[in-house]
Structures are given as C-alpha cells and as structure tokens.
Amino acid sequence: MEQRARKRGSGSKAITGAKGLIETGLVPAEHSETIQVVEASFSVRLTPHIIDQLSGARNDDPVFVQYIPDGRELSFKADDMEDPIGDAVYEKAKGVTHRYPDRVLLKPTHTCMVYCRFCFRREKVGHPEEALNRGAMDDALSYIRKTESIWEVILSGGDPLVLSDRRLQALMEALGTIDHVAVIRLHTRAPLADPKRITADLVEALRKSGKAVHFVIHVNHANELTPDVLGGLAKLVNNGVPLFSQTVLLKGVNDDADTLADLFRKLVANRVKPYYLHQLDKARGVGHFHVSIRRGQQIMRALRGRVSGLCQPAYVLDIPGGHGKVPIGPTYLSENDDGSFTVTDYCGQPHHYEEIAADQD
Ligand SMILES: *Cc1c(COP(=O)(O)O)cnc(C)c1O
Ligand code: SF4
C-alpha cells in the first residue's frame, strides 16, 4: 500500500489528520487550532488527487467545503444523532445491517480514502480497528448464506475499495458461492477520491463472483468529475459494471437546480445513472450543510421536464429510527373527493384526470 501511494500522482501522499492537512497549506495557519479540535471528534483524510484538486481553491469552493474541516462542525444541535438512521437495531452480525428483506449492507471496513465533512456515518468511520477480521467476515458470510431472502449484497462502510484487490477478490469468490445472491452492489467514493484505484486488476477481482456487480458512486458536484475520474468510470462501464450515483443535497455545494442539472447531465453523458438525491441525515455537526425539504422539492420541480428523464434521481429521506428510505416528493398527483385526480404538469398547471372506468372492484 505504502509503495503504491508513493507512486501516485504528483508524488504527494494521502494525508491523515489535522497536522498533515495543515502541512498541505490548504488552510490558513489561523485555522489550525480549530481543525485540530474538529479532528478530535471527526476523522480527517485526503488523497493526493483531492489535494491536487483543492490547491488554489477558494474556501467556498464546492469541493473544498466537502473535505476541509470547519469550526461549525463543533456546534451540535440538540436533535443531532449519533446513529441518525437507526442502523444499530438491524445489526445481524458484526458489519451486517439487514433492514430490508431482500438486501443487506455488508461493511467490511470503517475506513475511507477521504472523510467528507457531512458524512452520516461520521461517528463510525475512521476506526481501522472496526474492520472485519477473518473470523468476523466468516460470521457475516454465514449470516448471508443462511438467509435465503437476501438477493442483493451491498458493500458499504467506510469504503469497500479501501480493501486490497486480493481481499476484494476473496470476498467476491465467497459471495459467488451463495446461490440466492444475484447482485453485488458497491457504494463507493473511490472513483472520485482516488481515480488510480480503478485498475484492470480491480475489474478482474470484481469479476470473480460471477454475479452482476453494480457501483453506486457518491458525487455531489460536476467539478468532482475531472478527466482522471471520468477515465476511471469509463474503465468500469466498458468492463460491464453498470454505474449509478448518489448525491447529498448540501448547502453551498449543490443547492440549486442549475448546479444539479450540470452534475446529473455530466453523469448521464458519462454513462452514470443518477439514482438518489439524499436529504442530509441529522448527524452531529453537519447543520451548516442543511437544505430544507421545501427547497429540495422546489429544486426537483425545477429539474422535472426541463432536464432529461435519465437525469432525474429520486429525492429520498432516510427516516430516523431505522424505518428506511422513502421518496419525499414533490408530488404531482392529488385525489379529489369524487375519486378523480388533479395532476400538475412540470410548468405547474393543474389538469383533471379520471382513470379508465374499471368493472366493479
Ligand atoms: C440504504 C440502505 C439500503 C439500500 O437501499 P436501496 O433503496 O435499495 O438503495 C439497504 N440497507 C440499508 C440498511 C440501507 O441503509
Ligand atoms: S466516503 Fe462516504 S462513508 Fe466515507 S466519509 Fe465520505 S460520506 Fe462518509
């Protein structure tokens, strides 16, 4: 790993922790104390690719604010939660979260290549000691093997691409032996954080399950889609890995329709289907990124009809308490007292709609 890191990019290495960040010169010296206090609660890490991208960026740059710690992370609100989506209840084995019958989250590691300042798992990520060791991984796999309702395994974390190709390959081979698992999905930020991680060897390792392998990449702004990043994504699609994206609606990053239209169009033009636009989860110290649901719905309304349907993600909220993700609108249909409907078109005009008359039912 160390050797590979040294060979990367501009000769720089990934930096971990506040001190490393201060040495990059990306933040003014007077902020160094604040950053060290933030780091005591929430991990800090940047890859050479992101360091390069941020050099010379202003402190309100939409990529900069996603990665550089901010004193506002220390102002917790009363209802901020340590487990904002209530995952803990569904932990069926270490690293296995089974909330929905047909799909399960498998978290082999709690580390990431970068730590996003708004992360909903910020209390959990950045602890290498939480990674599944061989015994724990065997237990996780036995749970999946004995639970026949599991159709899809979602590798998450942390970032599953922190694992070496050798470990990923072993995991793929193991999942490949479980008949009822049809699909393996990887939720990852690696193609954005470290495009060099997307290699022919990785693609080869992913093939070993013999199952359909899908990627959901986490991306929040079109500026993250640099030529290197797009090269990595092309390598995946060209090798038969379908790509989807998830985006968190973030104040100061992407909270307007034009910014999101640029992002979703650039994704689709590069063969990535926008999947989810997430309402920000109530993790501790992320309040300064909050965008209201009303505003989120306005943005979604502005995109509908004006931007290709391929570019429309579902706007979703993960209901606190572990009740799952649901689309949160806007809605275009309302039922009238007489059983007919009023449907609103993308320009905001209402239309009366009656269903085809059914036989008595
Ligand atoms: C988000 C999530 C999933 C995946 O949900 P999809 O709607 O299929 O993307 C599965 N399990 C858990 C616990 C989740 O939080
Ligand atoms: S990559 Fe994902 S899990 Fe890791 S810090 Fe960012 S949002 Fe959190």
TrEMBL record:
Molecular function terms from GO: 4 iron, 4 sulfur cluster binding; isomerase activity; metal ion binding
Keywords from the UniProt entry: 4Fe-4S, Iron, Iron-sulfur, Isomerase, Metal-binding, Pyridoxal phosphate, S-adenosyl-L-methionine
Modified residues (N6-(pyridoxal phosphate)lysine): K325
Keyword Lipid biosynthesis: no
Binding site for [4Fe-4S] cluster: C112, C116, C119
Domain Radical SAM core: residue ranges: 98-310
Keyword Methyltransferase: no
Family named by the database record: Belongs to the radical SAM superfamily. KamA family.
Cited PANTHER family: L-LYSINE 2,3-AMINOMUTASE (PTHR30538:SF1), LYSINE 2,3-AMINOMUTASE-RELATED (PTHR30538)
Name the record gives this protein: Lysine 2,3-aminomutase
